[in-house]
Amino acid sequence: QVQLVESGGGLVQAGGSLRLSCAASGGTFSSYTMAWFRQAPGKERDFVGAIRWGTGSTFSADSVKGRFTISRDNAKNTVYLQMNSLKPEDTAVYFCAADKDLRWTIPKNKYDYDYWGQGAQVTVSS
User: Fold this and answer.
1) Angle at 120 between CA 123 and CA 79, to 5 degrees
2) How far is CA 5 from CA 8, 21, 42, 64, in A?
3) How far is CA 99 from CA 15, 32, 42, in A?
């Protein structure tokens, strides 16, 4: 059974940085796509970015491009979301997700993802 466990959330001032981790277990992830989504109160769960575990190729949403970076550590089976230059509008619960299907393009639709973590709260104060 695939399990995803996020960590690293917290409270930070605008302009600061945080790094989220997503520890994956229970599967062979070399063909998976791992993604980060976020959900603010009363809003939809939005795609933030993703990484193909095998190749390391990444894709980020326009709203975070240039500020957020996704990476992975194969030895630790962990995916990271490095968030810099944080803004109050980045405040949300951040979710790690895994897509086990091979696709031509990185999926941005939450319904394409098979497994989810429990979420990590990120709060950015102004």
Assistant:
1) 120
2) 10, 8, 24, 22
3) 31, 6, 25
| Token code pair at residue 80 | 């990271």
Four-point Cα dihedral 118, 111, 29, 92, nearest 10: -40
How far is 93 from 46, CA to CA, in rounded Å?
Answer: 10
Token pair 């803004």 in the structure block, residue: 87
What distance lies between CA 55 and its chain's CA centroid?
17
**pLDDT (tens place) for every residue of the chain, 126 residues total:** 999 999 999 999 999 999 999 999 999 888 899 999 999 999 999 999 999 998 999 999 999 999 999 999 989 999 999 999 999 999 999 999 999 998 889 999 999 999 999 999 999 999
Nearest to 118 by CA among 28, 37, 34: 37
Residue 19 tokens, joined: 């790094």
**Taking the CB of residue 105, how many other CB atoms lie within 10 A of it?**
7
And the tokens for 70?
């996704």
